[in-house]
């Protein structure tokens, strides 16, 4: 045990290896440890993803930060149908990791996953994805735990997807990761956690890509989880949940009213920024007047249009220092639509 989570020793050589698990064994393990996450944003958007237990006694689980950011009234549901309320202990949008806590009893059969070493994973190894991706029914109440397997393509791969931070260390593999799988476990054939499923590379419209999936390596994730998140620290979390704005963004959300809003921004010369989906109540950002429905255009007097750009700046702001933010009011206050603003607030933590 390390800090409340179970980790495995390096595998011994020869006949002392632990038994390899069948696909059915891995699925059974997933039923005990992997749960569906569901919550609601202030704009009534229903968000969902996957999480997994890392500490049964402490009722702690892990998922991606982008799964839970901006959500309230969060619940976790196991494949048995048993549900429990969740709240976020800590999250880091720049490593895309979050720790959640079950505030009601876990199922009796619940079991925490054991962290393995991603350094031991080699190209050609078989890995397994467990999670709750969207299905043809699109009914979350009926969603079942799904399993996919594939081969490791490469390790220690840097990766970045649209609207996500830069991942410095991932496992690239062929075990399908669909929307909703984010935050779930990538297991080796002994049932140990070797990655956290995060990203699917679709390529571009002119050059589509198939079969490229990425999971944050367990070794890099374990350091962040043990040293920061399980202790309640939320590094790089400025108190807001954002999405990258691009021309046509609002049209994709609302076909009737969205195009007019995109046109207004285009006429004002706004081609990018970070649209605020939600703000953490009581945070410095909230107290400084930042609200859901605003568009952030600068952080520390530097233009920001992507989550990666935001993270590069956020990681350089010392705890206790002042964050300076510029933006445009859009949907937060109709009486001040299009009005630019500048505000400041102290970043959480002590320097």
CATH top level assignment of the largest domain: Mainly Beta
User: How would you describe the oligomerization state of the chains in this entry?
Assistant: single chain
In CATH, the architecture of the largest domain is Beta Barrel
Instruction: Give me the side-by-side strand order of the main sheet.
Output: 1-2-3-6-5-4
Q: What sort of overall outline do the alpha carbons produce when their principal axes are compared? A: globular
Gyration radius, rounded: 21 Å
User: Which band does the percent of strand residues land in?
Assistant: 35-45%
What is the ordering of alpha helices and beta strands?
A: HEEEHEEEEEEEEEHEHHEHEEHEE
Tell me roughly what share of residues is in helical segments.
10-25%
Separate helix tally = 7
Protein name: Serine protease Do
GO molecular function, one term: peptidase activity
EC number: 3.4.21.107
Keywords: Hydrolase, Protease
Describe, in plain words, how this protein is organized in 3D.
The protein is mainly β and 351 residues long. The protein has 2 domains: 19-231, Thrombin, subunit H; 240-346, PDZ domain (Pdz3 Domain). Helix content is 15%, strand content 38%. It is built from 7 helices and 18 strands. The protein has helices at residues 23-33, 65-68, 218-227, 249-253, 258-267, 284-287, 307-314; strands at 34-40, 46-55, 60-63, 72-78, 83-92, 97-102, 126-131, 146-160, 166-173, 185-187, 193-203, 208-217, 240-245, 273-279, 294-299, 302-303, 322-329, 340-346. The strands form 3 sheets. Strands 1-2-3-6-5-4 form a 6-stranded antiparallel barrel. A 6-stranded antiparallel barrel has the order 7-8-9-12-11-10. A hairpin with a 5-residue loop joins strand 8 and strand 9. The longest helix has 11 residues, at 23-33. It is globular, with a radius of gyration of 21 Å. It starts with 22 loop residues before the first helix and ends in a 5-residue tail after the last strand.
